[in-house]
Amino acid sequence: MLKKSIFREIKRTFGRYFAILAIVALGVGFFSGLKVSQEAMLSTGDDYLSNVSFYDYQGISTLGFDEESLAEIKSQDYVKEAEGSITLDVLYDINDNKALVFKTISIPEKINLPVISAGRMPEKANECVIDDVWQIGESLNGESLIGKKISISEENDEDTLDLMAKREYTVVGTISSPLYMNYERGTTSVGSGTVSGFIYMRDDGFDCDYYTSIYTLVGDYEKIYSHEYKDKINETEKKMEQDFKSAAQSRYDKLYDEYVEEYNKEVSDKRKEVIQEAIDSAGDLSQYGPMADKVREEIEKEAGETFDKELGAMPDPPFDKPRVYSLDRDTNVGYVCFENDTGIINSIAKVFPIFFFLVAALVCITTMTRMVDEQRTQIGVLKALGYNTLSIISTYLFYSGSASIIGGLIGFFGGSFLFPYVIWNAYTMMYDFSDSVNFVLNAKLGIITILVAIACTMGSTLFSCLADTKEVPAELIRPKSPNPGKRILLERIGFIWERISFLYKVSLRNIFRYKKRFLMMIVGISGCTALLLTGFGIMDSISHVADLQYSEISLYDYTVVFDDEFTDSDRQDFIKEVKDESYGSDILFCEQITMDYYGNASNPMRLIAADYDDIDKFIDLHYRGVKVNPPKDGEIIICESFARRHNLEIGDTCTLQDDDLNTAAFTVSAICENYIYNYGYVNPETFEKEFGRKPKYNTAFVIYDEPSDGEKELVSAEKREDDLNQTAAKVREIDGVTSVALADEFKHRIANMMKSLNSIVYVVVAAAGALAFIVIYNLTNINITERIREIATIKVLGFYPNETSAYVFRENVFLTGISALIGLLLGKLLHAFVINEIKVDMIFFPIRILPISYFLSFILTFVFAGIVMFALYFKLKGISMAESLKSVE
Hints:
The protein is an alpha+beta fold. Helix content is 54%, strand content 17%.
């Protein structure tokens, strides 16, 4: 009998049953979907990088590597595979677009394999394939160039032209490359400084007898970003660095031996010429008769000794000793960004679902409490018939438990497919290596999530049932006494209460009379508003990072890096040329070196030593709107993200360590705001004291010449950007300059990277909106059901349908308004908590919510409430007036 009754109850109150099912499905789907999204994305990336044999290390030498160098690397027992690569930054003329920089790369056979997108791979030396995402305008892109020729620009320097086998190449296809997982193509010291894309060609497309780099795979394959992979890198990093240096040194020694051999041959030939000239100038030696041979010997000896004395020491070779760099995957922009972006999803997944489960428990408590109250008489009859308390409670546990299990299964499977699909489709705007995502079903995650949901709903059901089932049948059969009417606080304020109309007085009394319902509405709706505000706030914090960094903090237009031999005299020449040629109006020189927090290399800092008299023009050091004083001797200013990561406060000692394990200790004098990278600031005197030398001033921040006030309106953003690109290209040609980086270019790069994260916010907002709708619908529906006789009575009294709706929904509007306001306060706190949980290397997200986000969250809450009230309007209209005649008994 109990089984039949519970199924009848599910059918009769399917709206309530579905509310529990839907809220659980939403909570489980949101949590499992977000949680598994990172796993699915990493699985997709791992499959791709495994299939293309993505490198573990890249060795770069300024002198290059030869076949013997490559063989030396391959001979190491821990090296699984090694392959040489030729990479050049080359200017191309494509259609009417002149001097576009493309990273030109030799086609690999074993490591970093490109994937053909359209067309075919090159078969001849004069054929190439081009970046499949490269595009200018709507018509000119990689695929449109298939079958057409591109030309090597005459603007290339002689060295580059000499290294290219042809002057024209035919594009035969488009490809994607694992070296460029996202759409970031990087910068260069050639041309405008911006790499437009990449081009791959056969080795014989180059006229180059050496490799510019060597890529290696070491040890067994481990999943990307895993602890096992990081352990493998930690074990092999030093060995790989030494082996690259050894291989480069071997090439240097070979070239040096060839140089010595060539030099000695030239010297020998010249010596012979000088001696022969001396003999020739001596005339006919036969006049010396038998002494002729001896005279010849004396002339040869004297000429040879004179030549040797004048020759002097052998000149240094025309090539320097190689600078060698050993780079692991963490220097690849796409690889690092992919890990950071997926990490943000996981950070959000840690926090948001908690609130979904809490609201699910709230909905279940409300629903089951109302259900038990309605069935008090039935419970009393069942107890009178001999059913024990456990049997009765089990029916209600089945009601909520079955809804939880069904909702949990729907949520788990739906979320595990829907969330990764939606998020990955958004991420393909930034990552083009796969059109589809690997779907992952994490059974352990699903079981735990569903059990938590069941515990929330069945626990709240048990809580709702215990009170009533403890009563004796005689008490249960009799109806509960209605809540006594009490004067509310507002009634005691006479001059206000007297001016309120009768119907509004009734609504206010009803709101405060049913305190449980009042509390449930406040908690449920405010929670939804808080989630909406947090979702919008995450977007505000993430999407404006680049603008905040380069409009409020980093005020310079471009950064110049100099070589190690840049002297004070060179610096003065640089200043003169920059100002004479109008390349910049203000320049700040500094030394910038990378340091690690002592004992922790996971969060490096860029330490800047500069003269702080003029730094305000270039870097605005402030914290919460208050200016930060320059550091004194022995002090350091650190950025907020670095301070939080290492629990540093003002007055603490900050100990930094360089790559050679040398340490330097500073006292934290201030903390400043900074959003991109970690920076620390010390004065030159402190730097000299700690490092035993004066700053080298290897970096300059430059402010570009701004147009006069009369010209500003005539200069568009595009024109200024073009001018800056051209200026950067000219500055790169100045002696001693190794690279120039435009602030706007980096700003656009970060902004584009953050765009892909907006999809997560849209998912959060949509889920929060669905949650708000379910909560408001369920609570309003219960409110109507509880007051059905009251509503029928006012209809008997002559209330029209609209008046009846206004009578009931007026309370909802009032409660929604209070709840939304409270939700905005809760949302601000929740947003701060979530942002603090999102930790991304080198990017710090500010706790920032724009006014429009508060407005949208508030309005959307009322929109959802309005939709619910519209849907339930017809239920109110359908209530029969005969209900008012029914006796409670």
